[in-house]
Amino acid sequence: MKASGFQYARPSSLEEACALLAEHGSDARVLAGGQSMFATLNLRLSAPSLLIDINRIEALKGIVLAEDASHVRIGALVRHAETASSPLVEQHLPLLHMAMRHVAHPAVRNRGTTCGSLALADPSAEMPACAITLDALLVLQSRDGGVREVPAVDYFFGLYETARQDDEILIEALYPACQPQEVFGFDELARRHGDFAMVGVALRASYAGGIISDLRLTTFGTDPMPILSTAAAALAQGQAWSVALGEEIARAAVAELNPDHNHFGSPEVKRLQAAALIRRVLAATFGAPADSTIPYGASHG
Ligand SMILES: Cc1cc2nc3c(=O)[nH]c(=O)nc-3n(C[C@H](O)[C@H](O)[C@H](O)COP(=O)(O)OP(=O)(O)OC[C@H]3O[C@@H](n4cnc5c(N)ncnc54)[C@H](O)[C@@H]3O)c2cc1C
Asked: Which PROSITE patterns match (predicted)?
């Protein structure tokens, strides 16, 4: 199938892009890497009257470490490939560096943007889960320079549903830079490496003197949006690692999931896969690898 007809604009400034978006509202779409957009257009799942191509806007490029080293800014035009190979990301955002290995295939990574993934909010995508786990701020701009910062936990709220309004462009994501006592874990199950996750887990915690604190454990791929486990955080607070604790956390985190039945399997299968993956990520982060055999022969992405 081919896309319906649409107008195309390629502004060279953010102000111009925001003005166009304000003028056309929900009839317009921002075009970043186009890796998800063109599939939805060609399948006629969406039929905007105007595409606003942001690729010429210099202000949206670049990965930058803040002067006080408190956070890393990833601009809206940073491609997945740039995030994946960035020394700044490797050093200051180890979770993103780990997760990037699982994002799509080289051709998609060369065009697809890291912020585009946040804007789209696919429930099986890695970047939304990492943003929630790291407590990132997503920066949205609308006409007349109106800018607001939305914490990732408040940004995603349903299947492809986010706090972004029709007249807003996601201009950058701000990720807290890692601290010396922090540890990170990431893993996912996918049919083939680089495919969207069937189930994935992202983890960040403080780990000093053998004691876990401030655990943020996010499961994605199971529910319409990534789920940050409050039960896992409560159970782990002030505890030393043990396999028994891992079991307890996995059980509690899975109880907070509400998986749908879809082509990847039944809710029961997804809960089993999530539990195994959570145990695996916890053990890899805090202790010796646990026996986290994945049921039903799913491959380890
Ligand atoms: C074969 C294939 C495999 C893939 N596998 C994975 C995978 O394993 N993991 C994964 O995470 N992704 C995967 N993707 C998706 C890929 O990462 C996309 O590129 C990404 O989700 C969207 O980024 P984009 O820059 O291409 O956005 P576009 O396709 O240009 O836009 C997608 C949507 O987001 C909106 N948008 C984009 N940027 C902005 C912005 N700055 N402000 C406001 N709205 C914006 C657009 O209007 C559109 O609605 C895959 C894609 C393909 C085709």
From this structure: FAD_PCMH
Please give the backbone phi and psi of residue 98, each rounded to the nearest 5 degrees, phi first.
Answer: -65, -45
Q: Which residues line ligand 1 (CB under 6 A)?
A: 29-37, 39, 76, 80, 103-104, 108, 112-113, 115-117, 119-120, 122, 125-127, 169-170, 194-196
C-alpha to C-alpha distance for 31 and 284, rounded to whole angstroms: 38
**Are 62 and 75 spatial neighbours (Cβ–Cβ below 8 Å)?**
yes
pLDDT at 298 over 70: no
User: Distance between CA atoms of 91 and 110, rounded to whole angstroms?
Assistant: 21
Whether the pLDDT of residue 290 is over 50: the answer is no
Q: What pLDDT does residue 142 have?
A: 94
Which domains can be identified in the chain, with CATH numbers? 59-176 (3.30.465.10), 182-297 (3.30.390.50)
**CB-CB neighbours of 92 under 10 Å:** 22
- Closest Cα to residue 284, out of 179, 185, 213, 200? 185
What CA dihedral angle connects 148, 99, 32 and 149, to 10 degrees? Answer: 0
State whether residue 41 is helix, strand or coil: helix
What is residue 288's predicted lDDT score, i.e. its pLDDT?
Answer: 59
Query: How buried is 179 (Cβ within 10 angstroms: 0-12 exposed, 13-18 middle, 19+ buried)?
Result: exposed
Q: Exposed, middle or buried by CB within 10 Å (0-12, 13-18, 19+), for 206? A: middle
- 194 Cα nearest atom in ligand 1: 8
Q: Nearest 10 degrees: CA dihedral of 278, 158, 123, 203? A: -30
